[in-house]
Amino acid sequence: MTNDRLGxxxxxxxxxxxxxxxxxxxENRAYLSGFTGSAGVLLITADRAVLMTDxxxxxxxxxxxxxxxxxxxxxxxxALVARxxxxxxxxxxxxxxxxxxxxxxxxxxxxxxxxEWVSVAGLVEExxxxxxxxxxxxMRRAAAIADEAFAQILPLIKxxxxxxxxGIELEYRMRKLGAEGVAFETIVASGVRSSLPHGHPTxxxxxxxxxxxxxxxxxxxxxxxDMTRTVMVGEPTDKQRExxxxxxxxxxxxxxxxxxxxxxxxxxDVCRSYIAERGYGENFGHGTGHGVGRFIHEGPxxxxxxGDVVLKPGMVVTxxxxxxxxxxxxVRIEDMLLVTDSGAEPFTHTPKELLIx
Length: 357
Hints:
Strand order of the largest sheet: 4-3-2-1-5-6
Helix content: 25-40%
């Protein structure tokens, strides 16, 4: 897979007007090379791929990145890059302008003479939007781990338990099922706190009559999953049923509309317009979804702002509308979907009809 990714990247270098690319962002470095260590820089040209890392990781890098020359800097990465640029005769080197700090950029410019530095922010991220078969398999597994962990904690969701305890238990079950960690900080928000879209777990005790929102994901071999379910503890009121039903219908419409050829903005509008029609447009203030991969939030965006990318087969996105009423509570439902040739395949399989516990 690494050679395929390098080939795709190299095809874009000339388009961006560069004859080499410096890659420092951890997610991009791992995507292109397979190397998962915490320190390293890639320099990629039309005919060479070099991975620079320190003594701690040279053995790991050689095993994980066989398509790369692994080189240990004698002093600094900047000095090694300067030598390689001179050796390769590079004149224009691209860099991740959205990631490299101003100080780091200046240090490279000072170390490397006779070379123009060109920001190519978003180049690797654009390639990462389309997942290959290996990535899709890992994300399916990450989603399955999250589904199973949630099923295991359902009997624990009852009056008297705290949000924090449920969050800890959920993360523990995902780790026991094979996750290397969580994809992001787990959200558990109950009762009036469920109106907080990012309500992280507190010592609040779950009570009968609470809606409880769980937003969580597993990290599996470098890839993330993302799902949200809102459950009901005790018998729901008419209003709770109403709000849940609106969000569920909006989410189902979004899932049905997810297909190649639609833009993220258009997909967002499918969910947003329905919620607005039902009178709660002002209470849905975030985007309908986002891409998922090595990073929990990556392209393409499924929102009114920045949602101009047309969905293509191989992209993985979420559909997660919600309604949030301060002082009352909220509901959000989220699935992770693979865009296919004809529509979308859900990675999330936990039932989403209102679950009353």
